[in-house]
Amino acid sequence: MKFNFKLWIENEDGKPILGKGGVELVKAIIETGSISGASEKLNLSYKFAWEYVRRINASVGGMELKKGGKNAGGTEIPEKLKKMLEIYNSAQEEVQKVLEKYTKMINELS
Asked: What domains are defined for the chain?
């Protein structure tokens, strides 16, 4: 047996902004430089990735979405969002450690 938990960041209205999938998408955008490249890397449809990015940007702001075709365009991620990824990852690691502690305790009952 084990404990499990999903972690996400939500706005003041309780609507999700950024979770595990969004973090992976933004990281892939940083690595590839574009939504298109990120969607290919993660095997997501471009439309899905674009809509997800628009939702994140509506809440966080600061993303520069440059339109273009091959060898044009691109997406720039603001420092605020990069810092949010770091904070999310830190929270995820901390929660995971707590879950491992309690998983160990529950498994020792056997």
From this structure: 16-107 (1.10.10.10)
